[in-house]
Amino acid sequence: MSGRFGMAALGASALAALLAGSPAAAQTQISPFCGITGDATAPVSITYDPFSSSGLSQATIPLVLRRNRGLLTGRTDEVSFILTAPAGSPAFDITYQGQRVLYPEGATLGHPRALTSFDNGAFASGEIRYQFGGFTASDLSTPINLRVTVPPGTDLSAGEAISFDIIYICSGDGGMLPVPIPVRSSGAVRLNVNVVSALQAFYAGSALDFGEIGDVTTDAVLASPDRFTTSSANALRVRSSGPFEVRVRSQNDFRLAYAGGNLADSRQTIRYSARFLGQDITSNASFGTRTCARAGVAGTGGTLPIRATLKEGGSGKTPSSSYSDVITITFSPIVTSSAAQTCAGL
After folding, report:
1. Residues whose CB falls within 8 Å of the CB of residue 282, separated by 6 or more in sequence, listed in order
2. Nearest-angstrom CA–CA distance, 272 and 255
């Protein structure tokens, strides 16, 4: 008589998504120095699935700049700027007129450079330059169309916007002072990408097998529980862009049974427990639902070990060549949860 059970890890993907709200429109700042603020928002139609083979390819994001003004006639005239990505940011890319204008933090390669006279909208390689115009011109720029590319498999979080800093230099007119040394406008560009809360899950390990237990008594099982516990190397592996809910259910309510056996007859079942997410599960009613924090697209936070421990021996049970059970673990992605916990390694 051997006792074993199989695992069924079910992962539902692309069930939920979130579009972060756009920031409130800023008012024109009054300052003796030239300067800008920015506002970029992804169109509602853009959706990024981190598990898609194509990813998000060259989406157009309109960036609108607002210039500083002085108390009287002072105004920002020309500006040259780049975007910087915070350290540890995913490997996305932003280009303007075919040239990359997004730089890693601390590696701007000398950009932005000194301002020069140019026609409105003229392009400088590796940076963006813009001329607002005279006193009566609008404080808002015309939309500067950025092209955003998110490679397949980029580890973006569902429900989290992407923010960039602007580093700029500028010139003033009408008595406004220039800013020739690059300055930073933190979080000036906010790209709200609709990231699908998606999930993939699979079982990594061997069959959870107690081996031959026909002559093993319940007293022996209870005296040496480690001997009748499966390996801790077996685990569920999860990849997710957002948090997820976990449900566990046993086909035989955490009892091993043989084909055609009567689950109501204790002589035809063998009780066991499963250790999963830090809990010993002895019945379908004892686990409920757990909410786990995002595992990441690479799955670095998604290794969830599972072990099983016998609670009875096979001695005195109805003889059969195999007693077995199937545990089904269902993972459901959700957009956000304040109650999510780190589940890896529990």
Report:
1. 254, 271, 273, 311
2. 6
Gap between the Cα atoms of 104 and 77, Å rounded: 27
Q: Is 318 helix (H, G, I), strand (E, B) or coil?
A: coil
Query: What confidence tens digit (pLDDT) does each residue in 18-36 have?
Result: 222 233 345 788 999 999 9
* CB contact at 8 A, 313 and 216: yes
- Residue 159 CA to residue 297 CA, distance in Å, equals 14
Amino acid at 333: P
Q: For 100, list phi and psi in degrees, rounded to 5.
A: -70, 130
pTM above 0.85, yes or no: no
DSSP string computed for 158-201: TT--EEEEEEEEEEEETTPBPEEEEEEEEEEEEE--EEEE-EEE
Torsion angles phi and psi, residue 71, rounded to 5? -70, -35
Burial status of residue 163 (CB atoms within 10 A of its CB: 0-12, 13-18, 19 or more):
middle
Cα gap 159→262, rounded to integer Å: 48
- 84 alpha carbon, distance to own chain's centre: 21
Q: How far apart are CA 330 and CA 45, in angstroms?
A: 30
pLDDT per position as a tens digit, 291-343: 999 998 888 889 999 999 999 999 999 998 889 999 999 999 987 778 889 99
Q: Which DSSP letter does residue 24 get?
A: P
Beta bridge mates, 302: none
Q: Tell me which residue has tokens 């230099």.
A: 169
Long-range contacts of 90-95 (CB under 8 A, 24+ apart): 90/150, 90/154, 90/155, 90/156, 91/151, 91/154, 92/148, 92/149, 92/150, 92/151, 92/154, 92/162, 93/148, 93/149, 93/151, 94/61, 94/146, 94/147, 94/148, 94/149, 94/164, 95/146, 95/147, 95/149
Rounded Cα–Cα distance for residues 32 and 178 (Å): 9
Strand, coil or helix: what is 220?
A: helix
Q: pLDDT digit string (tens) for 34-48?
A: 999 887 766 655 677
